[in-house]
Design goal:
Largest sheet of chain A: 6 strands, antiparallel
Number of strands of chain B: 2
Structural class of chain A: alpha+beta
Oligomer: heterodimer
Distance between the termini of chain A: 73 Å
Largest sheet of chain B: 2 strands, antiparallel
Number of strands of chain A: 8
Strand content of chain B: under 5%
Shape of chain B: flat
Shape of chain A: elongated
Order of helices and strands of chain B: HHHHHHHEEH
Largest interface: A-B, 21 and 25 residues
Helix content of chain A: 40-55%
Structural class of chain B: mainly alpha
Chain lengths: 188, 225
């Protein structure tokens, strides 16, 4: 047996064994990973909709969105996961919206890699709580340095203006997309 | 014939003598990047140890069957297989941890510590020795990552393994959880380790000189007397 065939056989054999064992592990892990992701999404959906007890994914949308229902199965609002660019990378957040999409119920940040200590203040209560009961009939806006005066304004974090602006932009984009899709559906 | 050392020595040398971080200076990327907290350091080191031990073992078992021309390719395939297994298992069982370690688990494939041990040790020694060697290196890596992670977590967030230990008036040093903190901690620790080694060497040298002097003096004293 010459050297080339020996090399081919060795690499081929290692490749087959590696591929075989990986497909075995993958088969075991895939359902568990999917379950983890589902549990995480569910937790986030209910986080921004305190009254919600069950949810349903809206079909025919180019992005994820959920309708949520309370214990009597009445429709109480939307949960909208949406993502966009932050200061250093993707920010992914979940917005809870009222049934007419004109009120934000709550906002939670799911994923972010902002600067620790500055950008990460978007995870803290003082910033997040500003979004509670915010009027979203027109795009929300941000102000700097002074407390918000209108009901669709939030105050940007000092030292983390870009992160704050990013959050506002992501929410506005998400709501706009959902409004377009949902209102079109109603007109039909 | 190579000098045979005891199995225990194969293990303990990884802890200090050829410590992966302080002495071999391998695996710097995870050492610097994931050690923002002690638990991250432990998880990263355990995942690395898992890959290191199993791939060293397999490589050592089949070391005589691999043609030398394709050995690196074979090692990489074996290492990548175990890394993918570790990644999938962590995603399935510890989703939180896997999230905080992010891309650094898949990146174990290119951790030079593992390929370094495979090339330098596992490919030349019996499986039992390779097992002890990789376990020792893994433990050494774990200890250092835990120390760096703890220091950065205590100073950077005032906690250790998630428990608050610093007084409430303590203002966390943000720089410690930023990349700069990793370099500062690692640099100081490495300096400390080298200082200790130098100090020990000097002492040894002095004691030898002392011994030599006293042995020289003895005969002179005798002749004088």
């Amino acid at each position: 047996m010459n050297n080339t065939t020996k090399m081919l056989i060795t690499l081929g054999f290692i490749g087959i064994v590696a591929g075989g064992s990986l497909s075995f592990v993958n088969n075991w892990a895939t359902p568990l990973i999917a379950a983890n992701q589902k549990a995480e999404t569910e937790r986030a959906i209910f986080l921004v909709q305190p009254e919600a007890k069950s949810y349903e994914r809206i079909d025919n949308l180019p992005f994820e969105a959920y309708k949520v229902f309370d214990e009597n199965k009445t429709f109480v609002g939307y949960s909208l996961p949406y993502e966009g660019n932050g200061f250093q990378g993707k920010i992914r957040l979940m917005v809870g919206l009222s049934t007419d999409l004109n009120n934000i119920i709550a906002m939670e940040v799911l994923d972010q890699i902002e600067t620790p200590g500055l950008g990460t203040k978007i995870l803290e209560e003082p910033f997040k709580d500003q979004f509670k009961n915010l009027n979203s009939s027109s795009p929300i806006e941000w102000v700097k340095g002074s407390p918000p005066s209108k009901d669709n304004e939030i105050q940007a974090i000092t030292g983390a203006t870009i992160s704050s602006k990013a959050i506002v932009a992501i929410i506005n984009n998400g709501i706009e997309g959902l409004k377009k899709a949902e209102l079109k559906g109603e007109e039909k | 014939m190579k000098k045979q050392v005891t199995l225990l020595k194969e293990y303990t040398k990884g802890l200090w003598e050829i410590n992966p971080v302080f002495k071999q200076v391998l695996g710097m990327c995870p050492t610097l990047a994931v050690t923002v907290s002690a638990i991250n350091g432990i998880a990263m080191a355990l995942a690395t140890t898992f890959v290191l031990v199993l791939s060293s073992l397999i490589i050592s078992i089949i070391r005589k069957l691999i043609p030398p021309q394709v050995r690196i390719a074979s090692y990489i395939v074996i290492i990548a297989t175990f890394v993918t297994i570790a990644d999938l298992v962590m995603k399935a069982q510890f989703p939180e941890l896997s999230k905080s370690l992010g891309p650094f688990i898949p990146l174990i494939v290119v951790n030079c510590l593992i390929l370094g041990r495979a090339e330098a040790f596992a490919s030349k020694n019996t499986p039992v020795r390779a097992l002890f060697d990789s376990l020792g290196n893994g433990t050494g890596f774990l200890i250092v990552l835990f120390i760096i992670g703890s220091i950065r977590e205590i100073l950077g967030s005032g906690t250790i393994l998630g428990f608050h230990i610093m007084p409430l008036t303590f203002e966390p040093w943000l720089i410690m959880i930023l990349p700069a903190g990793a370099f500062l901690t690692l640099g100081l620790l490495m300096g400390l380790a080298n200082f200790y080694v130098d100090h020990k060497k000097n002492k040894e040298r002095e004691s030898i000189i002392e011994k030599f002097r006293s042995s020289k003096q003895l005969p002179t004293i005798e002749t004088e007397a």
